[in-house]
Every structure is written in structure tokens, then in C-alpha cells.
Amino acid sequence: MARIATVERKTGETQISLTLNLDGSGKCDVHNPIGFFDHMLRSFCKHGLFDLSGSLAGDLNVDQHHLIEDTGIVLGMCFSKALGDCAGIYRSGFFIYPMDESLCRASVDFGGRPYLVCNASLTGIPLVSIGADGKESSFQTDCFEDFWQGFVNNANCNLHLDTIRGRSDHHKMEGLFKAAARAIRAAVEIDPRRNGAIPSTKGVIV
User: Fold this and answer.
1) Which residues lie closer than 8 Å to 136 by C-beta, 6 or more apart?
2) N vs C: which end of the chain shows fewer Cβ within 10 Å?
3) How many CB atoms lie within 10 A of CB 176?
4) HEC string of 105-127?
């Protein structure tokens, strides 16, 4: 059975629509107005082998927080919807990803209890880039944790993200996105030995 979910969320601040295929090939086709954030979602899909499509729009005239956090919320809702009762999955996953001078670790458990621990060790200084229109743009690094908080609250998982060491904020965030993708991929894959059972002694994920 295909594990695919579509979620649309419209508020006075953002308009987000995403379709997620847990068993994809790593394709990301999301209209994303924030360049570095687009790079992170593409990396997440590529390394998690998730297919993600849709569009993101919001009040960037205010700042990036609403759009980035709400994207995490919608992506988390997609994971929760696609996983259903979590029958047959491994449930937990762990990965350490080296990104040049940075070493990043992610641990996840889709156990039904949302909790985020984020020790990304970021400077808080925005990353500056030049857009396709030749204009300067940036990524608010303080929104990194907001994205993952929105994700865990709605995916009903607990997630620990740690930068073990590193210098570049770009490398730290990209390494953590890739580590999270690999850990989540391991957690949501079907365990052939489980024979479709719920991965909990309770008999239910709550």
C-alpha cells in the first residue's frame, strides 16, 4: 500500500500545500521562495529517499519565521498521515553525518510523544546569497530550530539534533538536515520481521 499523504494549510500568514511519498526516490518539486531553505528540503528528500511536491507562500515581508515554521508543521502532518498507526515500521533511527569540518548527529523515535532537543550550535547570523533576480537575499538561521519544532509537534516524534563539532553554519544545518533525513528514513522503513505489528509494547503508538 502506498504511503502517500497530502496536506494543505492556509492561515492569514502562510499558504502551504505538500504531498509526501515516504517510499520515493528522493525527488523534491516544491516551489520555495527561500533559496537556502529550498536547498535544505532538497537535501532532506535526496538523502531520505522521500518524494515531496507542492508550494510554499507566506508573509516574507514580515520575516521568514512564519513560512519556515509552518512548513515544518505541514511536513510533520504529512509524515503522521502517511504513517497512520505506524504498523510495521522500525520506529526509531539514528545517523551521524560528516559535512566537511562539521559532524552532525540525529536520533528519532516515532513513539507518539513530540519532543525536540536541538543543539545545532549556530551563530544566529543570517546566511546571505544572491537570488536569480540578482538581488541579495538571506536565510534566518534562527528559524532552523523553528522548522524542526513544528515538524516534531505534528509528526508525533521525538528528535534530537546535535552538532558534535563544526565551524560553518551552512555545513552544520545541511549536515543536520541530512542526518535527520537518514535517521527518519531508517525509522519509517518497513521492518520485514515485524509482520505488520505495532512497534510498541502498548500495542498502540500514543
Assistant:
1) 128, 129, 130
2) N
3) 28
4) EEEEECCCCCEEEEECCCCCCCE
CA-nearest of 102, 78, 98, 63 to 184 is: 78
pTM, rounded to two decimals = 0.96
The per-residue pLDDT for range 108-163, each reduced to its tens digit, is: 999 999 999 999 999 999 999 876 677 778 999 999 999 999 999 999 999 999 99
Phi, psi of 196 (to 5 degrees): 80, 5
Do the bridges between strand 4-10 and strand 14-21 make them parallel or antiparallel, or are there none, so unpaired?
antiparallel
Please state the separation of Cα 196 from the chain's center in Å.
Answer: 25
Contact of 125 with 197, CB cutoff 8 Å? no
